[in-house]
Design brief:
Blueprint: H1 23-33, H2 36-39, H3 41-48, H4 52-74, H5 76-80, H6 84-92, H7 98-126, H8 132-149, H9 151-176, H10 180-189, H11 194-209, H12 228-257, H13 264-272, H14 276-308, H15 314-332, H16 336-348, H17 351-364, H18 371-375, H19 381-394, H20 400-403, H21 413-417, H22 424-440
Helix pairs in contact: 1-9, 1-12, 1-14, 3-11, 3-12, 4-11, 4-12, 6-7, 7-8, 7-14, 7-15, 7-16, 8-14, 8-15, 9-12, 9-14, 13-14, 14-15, 17-22, 19-22
Length: about 450
């Protein structure tokens, strides 16, 4: 049995320290996706006005594709015994991987700040005498403590949270569906638009897929001979079910209230209409959901920081991330909706071509020697070239104006033709994967 406080950071996990069950992959990703960040996608989907069958298709398809990518990445953990961003070294090289480590550090900080805002909003809503900045600090302090203990405590916490959140979100969904006539009213006004369907699919996919750079962080202690198929199924299933569930709750609450803001307080107010006990359930569910997701965010953030600068201690990297993330949350807290929506799609641009190359490396070229992480090439230029070309090919499909809430007023010519629908991550994933496969052939991680 491993020590209660995790000793290692980004080092290789030796056989003597391998332990755990694949079932915990399900509960970790289930709890991590029963959050208001997922819930907030429901109102976005509601605003698109798609017919119910098309909406269901976008929800199911987007979540399955994104969840499968997370599962495929998680299955790399036992083979390599390293965090996901360190495994990336085997594909891009020890130095060539640094830009991705930096990108993931920034990404995880952003998600951490988003969930810190959510937790702060909930505390401030319950007791307005607590200023938002103080509420955010209370939230991040709780998350810091769990993440500080590390891998095993995180898995145990997420297991408990998966049960609590499962019950609470079940109550939320049941209440949201108590007014079927409102769904009938929505169905009468809904109309199919292929561009809106593309937006819905991309929005759903982009959220769950963004967990990809975290995946092996929470599977790397499993024994090396652990069934890859079980890891893929458990991780994907946990994420897909929870994400789908949360988004349906968000959509149903929007139908019942007509409110498309995505703010967590809308759910509390809605459930409060059925009694104070239900309002309390909503408050607890939202706070614990933010906790479940944010522990993963800040833990992975600390590992990414160590991949950039390995002379620091894990607790030092963790403390630095919490400090910076808390400041970001306090600055972004004044404009939650714009901050969240603008953040969601923008960060995903770097992730999908990166994932595509990793999957080809591991599953097609079968580069599975963990020593490549520490002793491989400094830079794998062919992999970086495949990544850059794949990303560039996707630029005409990007809608940066929507992704950045107008900060970068760029709409690619193809995205413009598609009515603003941004499908660039699908394009970059496919393009980078194919180019890498052609350039590398059967070469297992070397130039």
């Amino acid at each position: 049995m491993a020590s209660i406080m995790e000793k290692l950071g980004i080092e290789h996990i030796p056989d003597s320290m391998r332990h755990g069950s694949t079932a915990y992959q399900f509960t970790l990703w289930f709890a991590g996706n029963l959050t208001v960040a997922d819930y907030a996608l429901g109102p976005i989907l509601y605003a698109l006005g798609l017919p119910i069958p098309w909406l269901i298709l976008a929800l199911v398809l987007g979540n399955i594709i994104g969840g499968l990518l997370v599962g495929l990445l998680a299955a790399m953990g036992p083979a390599y015994g390293y965090p996901q961003i360190m495994i990336s070294r085997a594909a891009y090289g020890r130095v060539g991987n640094l830009p991705f480590a930096v990108a993931n550090w920034v990404s995880t900080l952003g998600w951490f700040s988003v969930n810190a805002i959510i937790g702060g909003y909930i505390i401030n809503y319950v007791d307005p005498r607590i200023p938002l900045y103080a509420a955010i600090l209370i939230t991040v302090a709780t998350q810091f403590i769990i993440a500080l203990f590390g891998y095993d405590i995180i898995h145990r916490s997420e297991y408990v949270l998966s049960i609590i959140l499962g019950v609470m979100f079940a109550v939320s969904l049941a209440l949201a569906l108590t007014k079927p006539h409102l769904l009938t009213t929505y169905a009468r006004t809904a109309s199919f638009n292929p561009f809106n369907f593309a937006i819905a699919l991309a929005t759903v996919f982009s959220y769950i897929m963004s967990w990809g750079p975290y995946a092996s962080d929470y599977s790397r202690y499993l024994p090396e001979n652990t069934s890859r198929s079980k890891i893929i199924v458990y991780a994907a299933l946990g994420g897909v079910l929870a994400s789908l569930w949360s988004e349906v709750v968000g959509f149903a609450v929007s139908v019942a209230t007509g409110n498309t803001s995505g703010l967590p307080t809308v759910l509390v107010q809605f459930m409060g209409n059925y009694g104070v006990a239900y309002a309390i359930i909503a408050v607890i569910a939202l706070f614990l959901g933010a906790l479940a997701a944010n522990v993963l965010n800040i833990y992975t953030n600390s590992l990414s920081a160590l991949a950039i600068y390995n002379r620091a201690k894990r607790w030092q990297a963790l403390a630095a991330g919490v400090l910076v993330g808390a400041v970001m949350a306090m600055l972004g807290g004044l404009n939650f909706v714009g901050y969240y929506e603008g953040f969601l799609l923008f960060l995903d641009y770097w992730i999908t071509p990166w994932i595509g190359i990793l999957l080809v490396m591991f599953y097609v070229n079968k580069a599975r020697d963990w020593r490549l992480v520490e002793n491989g090439p400094r830079v794998v230029w062919r992999a970086l070239l495949a990544y850059v070309i794949g990303l560039l090919l996707s630029v005409p499909f990007m809608n940066l104006n929507a992704a950045t809430s107008g900060l970068i007023p760029y709409v690619g010519p193809i995205a413009n033709t598609l009515g603003g629908a941004d499908i660039s991550y699908f394009v970059s994933f496919i393009a980078a994967s194919i180019i890498y496969l052609v350039l590398m052939g059967g070469n297992k991680g070397h130039q």
